[in-house]
Amino acid sequence: MPSDNPDRIGIMADSHGDANAIVMAVDFLKGNACHALYHLGDICDARRWETADDCVELVIHCGIRAVMGNNDHTLTADARGRKPAGIRRDTLSFLENLPLRLSVGSARLVHSRPFIKRLGLSAMIGGIGQREAGTFFRENPDGLLFRGHSHQPELISPGEADIRFSSLVAGQTIELAAVRPCIVTCGALTAGWAMIWEPDGDRLQCCRFS
């Protein structure tokens, strides 16, 4: 296995209670020399609460930093009202204390939309269309946003006349300097998608590990 590379970061999202998908993604990203790992929310699935303990235990054990997804929030709210809760107290506490946004340098990492101060918890739901992308680009003219939620890998960037929404394919490399500002949807772990980001090289690779 290659040694960790300080210029490589692994990004994943939307495991939806699939602990095996997390294991496979970690093995793949670590095997590709990623020194830090991030999960963009929906670690768990609100309809599969019995898988939450295993998924959260993996995230903690592997040192993955994470943001809260809408399923994580719904699961904890349901667990608080259920007797017995069905998930461990430490699992519940971990999910409830996840942030809505993380920053790595100038890049932002969220579950869905970046407008936390305006939208609060509802930033975790809804997609990013022309209006939302345009607002982000105006407010962040050199911005880079990583998001999950929509499950399919996609690059959103300004075009000459309109905003471009481009699907990404496995093995594709994006030179981020050429497309900034931009929004990257990372794709779901449940379908085998992950991203390798090289901040110093301003480069991103779309990967499929299964």
From TrEMBL:
Residues 8-155 form the Calcineurin-like phosphoesterase domain. Gene3D superfamilies: 3.60.21.10. Signal peptide: none annotated. It comes from the Bacteria. Belongs to the metallophosphoesterase superfamily. YfcE family. This is Calcineurin-like phosphoesterase domain-containing protein. It comes from Desulfosarcina alkanivorans.
